Amino acid sequence: MGIITVYNTEVTPGNRKIITIPITRDLGVEIRIKAHILAGKQDGPTMLILSMLHGEEWFSSLIIRELINRIELDDLKGNIIAVPVANTSAFNTGTRSVMDNSDEPDANRSFSGRYQWISNQITRAIENELFSVSDYLIDYHVGSWGCTMADIGYGSDYKDKQMVDISKGMAVSYGFPMIHAMTLFKGTHSDRTSMGCAGVKHKIPGIVPEIGGLGFGETIERDWLAQNINGVIGNLKYLNMLEGEPELCPKYLFIKDYWRTSPKNAGYLETKIGLERQFTEIKKNEHLANVIDPETFDILEEIRSPGDGVLFYTCRNYMVRPGGWTFGIANMEDGNSKWVSSKDLKIERP
Questions:
Q1: In the chain, what are the domain boundaries?
Q2: What is the C-alpha radius of gyration for the chain, rounded to an integer number of angstroms?
Q3: Contacts of 105 by beta carbon, 8 Å cutoff, 6+ apart
Q4: 4-254: which CATH architecture?
Q5: Cα–Cα distance between 328 and 310 in angstroms, integer?
Q6: How far is the CA of 201 from the CAs of 161, 190, 198, in angstroms?
Q7: What is this structure's pTM?
Q8: Is 321's pLDDT higher than 80?
């Protein structure tokens, strides 16, 4: 059995420790990362779990809290590094990004940065202190208040096919039916993100679970929490870090392209469909919501589906700003997104 060392601190097998990694000092506040180290009593790889690179997505910190309480070190093969709040600067302001005047305020778009912006310093510490000792990555990105995400992203275009297979296996083993084939060499999911940087630069396969959000009530949010815990446990089993087999879904929708139906105008979003429509078919031009002027109460715009697809992320009635989160619809028109039976998937363990 080996000793894991994080930020010059050793953690011996069978022990837990919280390690503080100092980042910088902003006006009146220290910026730091607290990492929970769970060192299993048996040999195995190290999984890094990140949460809250975006400061308003705090639902994912509850997943890590539950996971830490659930894991028995006697059963764990290898180590877990769990970071509940990766971006304390944005968390302090309750915003997605760091509230400074930088060129790169979004921490999940500023990995491998050259400058001393707060986001660059945060992501540089994650690279140097955490990626450097990790074998696998789970990076949570859930819905902020009023919206819910609902897919598992995996790296579909790693240069190494084995990394693609492992990432896809992790996504399937999460046991959630919506799987998004992320591209790491183009678009917003580039090597400047945690997932892209870990895979492209550090050769660490990973996934981005996006299940859950805030403002939907305790019952449904507890269900989302349970789904995420089952997903992490499924990954630990798939990666041979826990005994047993992951529980698979009967079938999965592999999403290649999808539409974001973001509003052009700010206002009160009044939905025409609810959570019961999640994972069901949406027809082209179907009326999904209205954006209401909060002063005159006029309808500023109608949100309609751009095409035939399957709804995976959605929202409740809430105030939105231009470009805000509303609905995500898998494009079923071009034939690139397809339902696949788990019986037809060939998932081999690493």
A1: 4-254, 257-331
A2: 20
A3: 97, 98, 99, 117, 119
A4: 3-Layer(aba) Sandwich (3.40)
A5: 8
A6: 15, 11, 6
A7: 0.96
A8: yes
